[in-house]
Design goal:
Elements lengths: L1 E6 L2 E7 L5 H4 L3 E5 L5 H23 L29 H4 L2 H8 L7 H6 L9 H11 L9 H15 L9 H13 L3 H21 L27 H13 L3 H10 L5 H5 L6 E2 L6 E4 L14 E4 L2 H13 L16 H15 L5 H14 L4 H8 L14 H9 L4
Helix pairs in contact: 6-7, 7-8, 7-9, 8-9, 10-11, 11-13
């Protein structure tokens, strides 16, 4: 039982001690003066004091005590010290005027006691400090796919608008945030971060009963915006990459070698199974399909890609160096993610090319095939792109794909 009451000219907070701890603490109830006659301040202080007592009970509940230790736990160190009639610094963060009025006049459907004791209390409601609460509430950890995107969203919001309590953010801040990404010509990134922030504020406003409109709701972005073009690899850059694949026996050299003449993604490549690699001398190929490590729902992504030139050599090198059912897993630690691998590969690619990335590999393969007048449907089949003739099942043989790819070997 937990409640607040007024005695004399002050509000008091009182709660029952769990039965398991009454002997240890030497009493059945705890009573604390909130040192205020204002209901708004009393509500906040009672909620903060309740959180401290909860910490004490949690730390004691599972401990084993000797008889000599009984009645020697110092409760006072868990009691908060309040000043007379001064509004608490956190009042602005935890409650707003409308909530307090509704509770005090009984207009709220929720009782004061339930409001106080059924909601978690943050140590600090500033944006930077609230991130940990959000990740915990949404059960997001550092290995989650959206983790880094959420972290970056918060970092940019702090950079643009500053770090302040979450209930002080307004439409002015979201407009600043939007304008920043429009001026930077990074609208797609801004839209993604805005979506993250909308979910962030919605979750925390609901959790802490903050009755305020979400500042990142219904933001309209320009329909047309600058999209940077992706430059293909030039001949000198392709030759540099081929030289690296022949000289090195590294994960980097194998991956870029396999991708150069196949156009596969890092995710498709890393999760490949030995049974999906065929290195016979007539028609070597890799098979991209669903397996235990990857699920492919897009029908266009399920395909057979011939291995020619440096891509064949790199795949052959991989199988000779690895004994794993999933060959690339011999080179990876348990903490790897596809994003980390791509980041490391792109970092080195930028050094050996004119600031290009893995995206340039696919564009380069398309341009090389177009240069020899390769039919569009064959390019689409190799790269797993959407095909125009979806209603016709004109199978393109592996021999035909192999003959076209074989013409672009440098």
């Amino acid at each position: 039982m937990k409640y607040i009451y007024k005695h004399g000219n002050q509000y008091w907070y009182q709660r029952a001690i769990p039965r398991k701890l009454t002997k240890i603490l030497g009493k059945k109830t705890i009573k604390i003066s909130l040192r205020t006659n204002k209901i708004s301040t009393a509500l906040i202080r009672a909620k903060l004091q309740s959180a401290e007592h909860k910490k004490m009970f949690t730390s004691l509940i599972n401990k084993k005590f000797t008889i000599n230790f009984l009645k020697k736990v110092d409760i006072s160190k868990f009691n908060l010290s309040f000043k007379d009639d001064s509004d608490d610094l956190l009042s602005k963060m935890l409650l707003n005027k409308e909530q307090i009025t509704n509770l005090a006049t009984k207009k709220s459907e929720q009782s004061i006691e339930n409001f106080l004791f059924t909601n978690a209390v943050p140590n600090n409601n500033f944006l930077s400090k609230s991130l940990e609460n959000y990740l915990r509430l949404k059960k997001i950890n550092s290995k989650s796919a959206q983790y880094s995107s959420i972290i970056n969203s918060i970092k940019y919001l702090i950079k643009i608008c500053g770090d302040k309590p979450i209930d002080e953010f307004s439409r002015i801040d979201s407009n600043k945030f939007q304008n920043f990404f429009i001026l930077e010509k990074r609208i797609s990134t801004g839209q993604r971060y805005q979506s993250n922030l909308f979910n962030f504020f919605k979750t925390l406003y609901d959790c802490f009963n903050i009755n305020k409109k979400n500042p990142f709701e219904n933001i309209k972005w320009p329909k047309t915006y600058f999209k940077p073009s992706i430059e293909p690899l030039n001949m000198n850059e392709i030759q540099k990459i081929i030289s690296i694949t022949k000289e090195e026996k590294s994960l980097f050299s194998i991956i870029i070698g396999c991708i150069l003449n196949t156009g596969v993604s890092v995710n498709e490549l890393i999760s490949i199974n030995r049974n999906e690699i065929n290195l016979n001398q007539f028609n070597p190929y890799i098979l991209i399909r669903s397996n235990d490590l990857r699920k492919i729902n897009n029908i266009y992504k399920k395909r057979i890609i011939p291995l020619v030139g440096v891509s064949f050599e790199s795949m052959d090198k991989l199988l000779k160096l690895s004994t794993n059912e999933y060959p690339f897993y011999n080179f990876l630690d348990s903490n790897f993610t596809i994003k980390k691998i791509e980041s490391k590969i792109n970092f080195r690619i930028k050094k050996i090319t004119d600031a290009k990335s893995l995206k340039s590999f696919k564009i380069s393969l398309i341009e090389r095939l177009k240069k020899i007048n390769c039919p569009e449907e064959i390019i689409s089949e190799i790269l797993g792109l959407k095909k125009r003739s979806i209603f016709y099942k004109n199978e393109i043989s592996i021999e035909m794909k192999y003959s076209w790819l074989n013409q672009i070997i440098e």
